[in-house]
Amino acid sequence: MAGSVLDFYHATEYLYDFADKVAFENQSQKSQWCDYQKDLLLASDVEVVIANIGSAKAKEEDKKKIMGYYQNNKERMRYEKYRNIGCGIIGSGAIESAHRTVIQKRMKQSGQRWSTKGATNILRLRVISMNKQWAKVIDFLKDTQIKQCA
Q1: What is residue 76's DSSP assignment?
Q2: What is the helix (H) or strand (E) element at residue 3, kind and residue range?
Q3: How far, in Å, CA of 69 to CA of 10, rounded?
Q4: Interhelix angle 8-19/60-73, nearest 10 degrees
Q5: Domains of the chain, residue spans
Q6: What pTM value is reported for the model?
Q7: Contact by Cβ (8 Å): 9, 42
Q8: Tens digits of residue pLDDT in 53-76
Q9: Which residues does 142 contact at the CB level (< 8 Å), separation at least 6?
Q10: Cα separations in angstroms, 1 against 68, 73, 99, 103
Q11: Which residue of 24, 46, 89, 106 is most buried, as measured by CB atoms within 10 A?
């Protein structure tokens, strides 16, 4: 999985699910703990978060589950690095939304079947349409026709 990023919001979902199982004195303490762990994750301090989970007042099986998840994915959780190099996206929401509106809305209509070539071509046209770039396509086609006629 080299090069992939673990969605930050999915990583924090695990954190909040775990926090529900921790014996905090009150809701405020739980919120502060979660906020602190999120800040650590954003700073790419996954090992510190793992240690904090290990020292939390919770069942060992609950701790092992989330600690294993973070340990197995820590190379994909370098959020500070990703933001510093200008990646901008540490969550998959925008990608998932684009997949739903650009691809699925057109490609998963009732009764449709696609060859790889056909799907590739229709998706190219769909991206052009969604990006409102038809004028560029028309200009390109006009230029191509003029060159072919000359």
Answers
A1: G
A2: none
A3: 11
A4: 170
A5: 8-84, 93-149
A6: 0.60
A7: no
A8: 999 999 999 999 999 999 998 888
A9: none
A10: 17, 9, 21, 24
A11: 46
